[in-house]
Amino acid sequence: MNNDDYIIIDVGLQQSITSEQAWHYHIIPKLVSDNSIEFFVDEEHQNGQNIIEELEILFGKTVRLYSASTITVKHSLGKYYRKPDEHVTGKAKQIDHYHAEDFLYQLIDEAQSINSSDIHIEPYEKKARIRLRIDGKLMERYVIRLTDYPALVNKIKIKANLDISEKRLPQDGRIYFGTGETNFDIRVSVLPTLYGEKIVLRLLSKNTAAIDITELGFNQLQLAHYLEGTKKTSGIILISGPTGSGKTTTLYATLKILNREESNILTIEDPIEYTIEGVNQVQLKEAIGLTFASALRTFLRQDPDIIMLGEIRDTTTAQMAIRAALTGHLVLSTIHTNSAWGTVARLIDMDVPSFLVANTLNLTVAQRLIRLLCPFCREKKKINEELFLGNFHPPRKLNGHYIATGCERCYYTGYKGRKAVYEVIPVDAEIEEHIKKKDFDIKDILHKKGIVSMADQAFYLVEHGETTIEEIYPILLNSVN
Question: Which of 45, 53, 112, 281 is spaced 20 to 30 Å from 136 by Cα?
Answer without folding.
Answer: 281
